Amino acid sequence: MKDLVSIITPCYNSAEFIEETIQSVLNQTYENWEWLITDDLSKDNTVDIIKKYNDPRIKLHVLEKNGGAGNARNNSLERATGRYIAFLDSDDFWYPEYLETMTDYMQENNAELVYCNYSRCNEQLQPVLKDFLADKVVTFSNLLKTCRLAPVSTMYDTKRVGKFLFPVKSKREDHVMWLNLLKVIPQGMPINKTLAKYRMRENSVSRKKKNIIKDQYLVYKDFMGFSTVKSLYYTANWAVNGFLKYSKIFN
């Protein structure tokens, strides 16, 4: 029997997009999965929509207090029982072969962490930039300068590396988590195939630029324990690479 995949999803006020996300999971060719959805006390009808799907693999938990995406992901991770951990935010989308391709690659190549290409789309899931390419082996060193790993396109093996929780006091919680993981494994392997769609929403926290530089600086200063000079150096690298990653001039 194929190993169980635990899908980790935080959601908050996701009623507009959650049904597309759910359908993308139900359409997976790899069927041995459990889906740990943690609702962060949504104010819309997100929970009602999820409850319409009568599939025992979908395991919904509603928090009593809003605590942010990192806290919601941790709640799902703590309940997860699968060998493989996959992440899917409540407005993103997987192609049907996502789970099968990722797990097959990990098993065939003895990989601890893998990531794939993903489409960068608008709210209607239409591409607005070139696909982000998984074209480099990821290490702790090169991940410091730019975060190539996105939740929608990354999977790791808990049998090999254990579980890694998200820091709840960081607004760059996914980058911190990946860095912590790559402190204990040598590399993450690329699958140069587009298997997911990332929805670039205008009101997304990750798209608000006012405090993002400060938040990224704290990734290095507070969470990696780097000196001020070293933290500023990596923040500058991250900012330049981020411009190249998202600017339409270069895409």
Can you name the CATH architecture?
A: Alpha-Beta Complex
Number of helices: 9
Question: Fraction of residues in helices?
Answer: 25-40%
CATH class: Alpha Beta
What is the fold-level CATH name, i.e. the topology? Answer: Spore Coat Polysaccharide Biosynthesis Protein SpsA, Chain A
How would you classify the helix and strand content by structural class? Answer: alpha/beta
- Oligomeric form: single chain
- Largest beta sheet, briefly? 9 strands, mixed
Shape: globular
Mean pLDDT: 94
- The tally of domains stands at 1
The CATH homologous superfamily name equals Spore Coat Polysaccharide Biosynthesis Protein SpsA, Chain A
- If you compute it from the alpha carbons, what radius of gyration comes out, rounded to the nearest whole angstrom? 17 Å
Number of strands: 9
Q: What portion of the residues fall into strands of 2 or more residues?
A: 15-25%
What's the helix-strand series?
EHEHEHEEHEEHEHHEHH
Q: Low-confidence parts lasting 5 or more residues at pLDDT below 50? A: none
Distance between the termini: 42 Å
Description of the structure:
InterPro entries: Glyco_trans_2-like (IPR001173), Nucleotide-diphossugar_trans (IPR029044). GO terms for molecular function: hexosyltransferase activity. Residues 6-123 form the Glycosyltransferase 2-like domain. It comes from Chryseobacterium oleae. The protein has a single domain, classed as Spore Coat Polysaccharide Biosynthesis Protein SpsA, Chain A, CATH 3.90.550. Helix content is 35%, strand content 22%. It contains 9 helices and 9 strands. Strands 1, 2, 3, 4, 5, 6, 7, 8 and 9 form a 9-stranded mixed sheet that branches. Helix 2 (46-51) links the parallel strand 2 and strand 3 (58-62).
